[in-house]
Design a protein that fits this description.
alpha/beta; six-stranded mixed sheet; 22 helices; elongated
């Protein structure tokens, strides 16, 4: 019963593939229809052998179809084979074209879904898993789908015509052949259950394979500086060993199919030869009919024997389709509500109303945060590492959603705004800003794609990038490599700040934007940040307290709770947590 339910699930998923196939249905149908004559023409050779054997070899007085000369038979065989080959090429081409187009449509839909995923999804899935699920699976599913349809229809019509030849030649021998055929196909029904778990684990190992290469590229300096080469090689070796073991297990559970089918079919052939000999000697069957029967039987059994070799790939296609719809059905927790409001202008404050948040159940990160961020003011967050500072600012652009309480802008819950308009009004400068491969100009223009040269120049100057840009031969069109690898940390930060300038958002979030820089770089970047902060509502997380002394409000967050808030001078006079942090840092600098 359970197996029937799972099989129905596969049927449903195949039906759900129809929207992707529909735009290319004609070519898809044509590629399938072409396989009908491809398969049907297999019977021509078998049919041609009967009159040829009876007339020429055995001299039993048989006649050729339509009383044509005998030499037409080999000519006809060649002609039909050429026609079959041309049709095979056409079918293969159409399958490749439609398969490629359908794969593109599936990947577009998956990428659209990926762009809707919340930050929690990326936190819980590795880069290798994303590459496997969003790139490799569509190819496996779509290529497998069309290839399987092509193989099925070709073999179906080949089998039908060959079975007709068998029964028209000798119905007695045809019964033997049919029984053997059923015995050869029966084991295939048991294979899927035996390999499903292995295929699932193979996908996970494949994802780990992708991940380790990504990490090796991104962490090359760390690997070199900590002499991790042997450690990473052992790690990679473990993945290869796991992949090898899974391959062997898969082989153990499926490789027996082909030899077993070969044995069963050999028994069928032996039985047909034994009984056919009796029919010939008893004058119940001509030698030509027997040769035609055996040829049709061998041609029928040959593709059956090969089914076992590609059955694992067929199951992988089924499971890849299943995984695709797992992603497409994945609920997106952060999305626009119906009739979402457009946030066009910030008029009042940002207010946290009794906000609580946790990444994992029963492990609070923020507890009962009540805070007002006045429009046009700078609010700085300080406190212990892991205390929840970054989480607070991540809730405003809805990288994560508030679980208890609410955050309002101008008195409206931020969940009532459209995501696009909310985030369009917020510029974020991270500690480690991601730069995309391409040029400096490409990365700055991400803030505003239609920016004029005058606007770009103003952003470059405000970000203190103009002197650096002027020293480059290619200027703004200098290629910066993957992740901005050809730029220093300070230069990356200033490119990100220039990007934020172009966006010209009224709310700016600075998440430890200078913490990874040396003193010289920090000074230049801090000047760029000061320019960015003018006339904007700013939320800043800073590890160096000296950079936030002029903030309009300083908020102390420890262990997910708001401990203190006030100006620098007020908090020093309280002689509380902030004063202790400041004095400890100041004393460290003094020493």
């Amino acid at each position: 019963m359970f197996q029937k339910i799972k099989d129905m699930h596969f049927v449903v998923n195949y039906k759900r593939m129809w929207p992707f196939i529909r735009p290319y249905w004609f070519r898809s149908l044509l590629s399938i229809l072409i396989t009908i004559p491809i398969g049907s023409l297999d019977a021509v050779i078998a049919l041609a052998l009967k009159p040829f054997m009876d007339t020429v070899i055995m001299e039993q007085g048989g006649s050729t179809p339509w009383n044509l000369p005998l030499y037409y038979i080999p000519v006809a065989i060649i002609g039909f084979t050429i026609l079959q080959s041309i049709l095979e090429y056409g079918s293969t081409y159409l399958n490749a074209w439609t398969g490629g187009k359908i794969t593109q449509e599936v990947q577009r839909r998956l990428y659209k879904k990926l762009m809707q995923m919340d930050q929690a999804y990326f936190d819980s899935h590795s880069s290798g898993d994303l590459a496997q699920r969003f790139s490799a699976d569509p190819t496996t599913a779509c290529t497998g789908l069309l290839a399987n349809v092509k193989v099925f229809t070709t073999r179906l019509f080949s089998s039908i015509t060959l079975i007709i030849v068998l029964f028209t030649t000798s119905w007695k021998l045809a019964i033997i052949a049919s029984i053997v055929l059923g015995g050869a196909l029966w084991p295939l029904a048991r294979v899927r259950r035996r390999i499903k778990d292995i295929v699932k684990k193979s996908v996970q190992v494949g994802a780990a394979h992708f991940t380790i290469f990504n990490e090796t590229h991104a962490g090359a300096k760390t690997i070199a500086s900590y002499n991790l080469q042997e450690h990473k090689k052992r790690q990679f070796g473990t993945i290869l060993t796991q992949a090898f073991k899974l391959t062997i297990k898969n082989t153990q559970r499926t490789a027996w199919l082909t030899p077993m089918m070969h044995i069963v079919i050999s028994i069928g052939i032996a039985g047909a030869i034994w009984y056919g000999s009796h029919l010939i000697t008893s004058k119940q069957m001509t030698a030509g009919s027997f040769v035609a029967f055996m040829t049709a039987m061998l041609m029928l059994y040959n593709p059956i024997k090969n089914i076992g070799r590609n059955f694992t790939q067929l199951q992988q296609s089924f499971m890849a389709i299943e995984r695709i719809f797992e992603i497409l059905d994945y609920p997106v927790p952060i999305h626009d509500i119906e009739n979402a409001i457009e946030l066009t202008k910030i008029k009042k404050d940002i207010v946290f109303h009794d906000v609580s948040f946790e990444y994992k159940p029963n492990t609070p990160v923020l507890e009962h945060i009540n805070l007002t961020v006045p429009k046009g003011k700078t609010v700085a967050f300080v406190g212990n590492s892991g205390g929840g500072k970054s989480t607070i600012v991540s809730l405003i652009p809805r990288f994560y959603d508030v679980q208890k309480g609410s955050i309002t802008i101008d008195g409206t819950d931020i969940r009532d705004f459209s995501l696009y308009s909310l985030r369009q009004n917020i510029a974020v400068v991270f500690q480690d800003n991601f730069l995309f491969s391409g040029t400096i100009r490409d990365n700055i223009l991400l803030g505003k794609f239609d920016a004029t040269e005058k606007e770009i120049a103003a952003a470059v100057k405000a970000a203190c990038l103009d002197e650096f840009i002027s020293e480059l031969d290619e200027g703004l069109d200098t290629n910066i490599g993957e992740r901005g690898a050809l730029l220093s940390g300070g230069q990356k930060q200033r490119v990100a700040i220039a990007r934020a300038f172009l966006k010209n958002a009224p709310i700016v979030i600075l998440d430890e934007a200078t913490s990874a820089l040396d003193n010289k770089s920090e000074g230049i970047v801090q000047q760029a940040i000061d320019n960015l902060m003018k006339d904007r509502t700013v939320l800043v997380i800073a590890h160096r307290l000296s950079t936030i002394q002029n903030a309009d409000k300083i908020v102390v967050i420890n262990e997910g709770k708001l401990i203190e808030e006030g100006t620098h001078d007020v908090l020093l006079k309280k002689n509380g947590v902030y004063a202790n942090l400041y004095n400890a840092q100041f004393k460290h600098k003094k020493n």
